[in-house]
Amino acid sequence: MLPRGRQQDTDGDREGSHRRFSRLCILFSVGVILLSLIPTVAAHGGSEASGLSQSHGLAIVLIGVLSVGTLVLLKRSGRISPTAALYGIAVGIGITVAGAILFEGLAPDPTYQASSMPFPRSWYQPLAIVTGLSVVVVSFIVGVVRWTTCPRYMVLGMILGGWILYPYLLPGFSGYTNPIGYGIVLATPLLVGYILWKDVGPTLSVILQDPVARRFGFGIGAMVSIFFMATSGYLSFFSEEGAPEETTVAVLSVLYQIVRWPTLEILLPDVPFFIAISPGVLLVLGSLGVLVGLNAAAVAHSWRLNREAGATQGTAGTATVVGACTCGCCGPLVSQVAVIAAGPTIAAPIYWIFVDSASPLNSIFLLGSIALFTGTLIYSIDSATPTRKDVFEVSAD
Questions:
Q1: 135 pLDDT band (50/70/90 cuts)?
Q2: Which stretches are transmembrane (predicted)?
Q3: What are the angstrom distances between the C-alpha of 198 and each of 190, 194, 195?
Q4: Partner residues linked to 254 by β-bridges
Q5: Cα distance between residue 288 and residue 329, in whole Å
Q6: What's the CA gap between 196 and 200, in Å, rounded?
């Protein structure tokens, strides 16, 4: 016969194992439903065959947003535990992402005349030069005056400014394959990683020891990365007119951001499914996904410690929206929303601002997103540093 204490521990272990198994079953079921939704739509050849339209995607987005908002309110009122709220919010965000992909994928390709541009292309060069030089100069001044002990911040700011300036310092084909361009793109995520390791590395290690926060951060980061790829055209579950009717696998040299990358393109028209992967896409969108995931994990850990996420951590949601503006992601999506809300006349300038490949605003929003994510993560962790004792307590839930 087991002693009372040991028997209680055994019962607690069984109960904990049962809870974990139930959560895994629920998440697996929801994941299967979400993954099966888009292929079902695509397999019928679009909205006409499946009976779905943009309004269905918008409805799914609203359901996801409402579910997330409801769970946040329930958590704040103490009606559900932080852990249950986090799992539910992850599912709600997954529903929102699926609806957004459906909404954008079923939208007709917009066609706008050059006359609908908000300003002429001749403005792009002075805009980029002024913005890039401002970022470089301000980063240098702030680094010398305030960040005297953290020169890495100054270096990151100057690299981001150089990224904006690069297409105009080395224009045309001479810059598309220049080692300097590849160095700038590669140095940015490496330097961001070094800054996080140097400033908040130990604390991030503590946060990621919390299994719930780790799963939540990984899930949110993965879903946001899929969203970025789908809305920027590098991942698609929808058939397109004029696409090859046979399975196609090709490696092409494709311009992404400021340089060309060898890009693996896979098209499976019978599924349908399309994906384009390159080192540049993995570096840029992967960096954004990791930063979003780490911010989400930090917020989740604060919730698990029964702390309220501060205002800075709350900007992670805003940063996610800004991040979606990168690489032409936001142009098609936001312009489609603008068409429904205000008509094509209002949507055209929004579309051109984000989609025109010659516009420096793509790079500005991308780099602003990276800086915002990084700063949000560092500041929020510094303002609420968890302890290893806290991690042990929440891990035992």
A1: very high
A2: 21-43, 55-74, 86-103, 123-145, 152-170, 176-197, 218-237, 273-297, 337-355, 361-381
A3: 12, 6, 5
A4: 261
A5: 13
A6: 5
The C-alpha atoms of residue 358 and residue 82 are separated, in whole angstroms, by 45
Contact 313, 296 (CB under 8 A): no
Strands across the sheet containing 248-256: 235-236, 273-277, 259-268, 248-256
| pTM for the structure as a whole | 0.78
From the list 215, 199, 212, 236, the residue with the least C-alpha distance to 82 is 212
H or E, element range at 286? helix 279-304
User: What are the pLDDT digits (tens) for 88-114?
Assistant: 999 998 998 888 888 877 766 666 666
Over the stretch 256-279, which tens digit does the pLDDT of each residue have? Answer: 888 999 999 999 888 888 899 999
Q: Which residues contact 347 (CB under 8 A, 6 or more apart)?
A: 110, 335, 336, 338, 339
Omega before 272 cis (within 30°)? yes
d(C-alpha 65, C-alpha 214), whole Å: 22
**Cα 308 from Cα 226, distance rounded (Å):** 28
Answer yes or no: is pLDDT of 179 > 60. yes
Q: Does the pLDDT at position 340 exceed 90? A: no
Rounded Cα distance between 204 and 372, Å, is 18
Amino acid letter for position 251: V
Domain ranges of the chain: 1-106, 117-395
Closest CA to 394 of 386, 325, 236: 386
Beta bridge partners of 250: 265
* Token couple for 357: 């490949």
Q: Do 75 and 303 form a contact (C-beta atoms < 8 A)?
A: yes
Contacts of 396 by beta carbon, 8 Å cutoff, 6+ apart: none
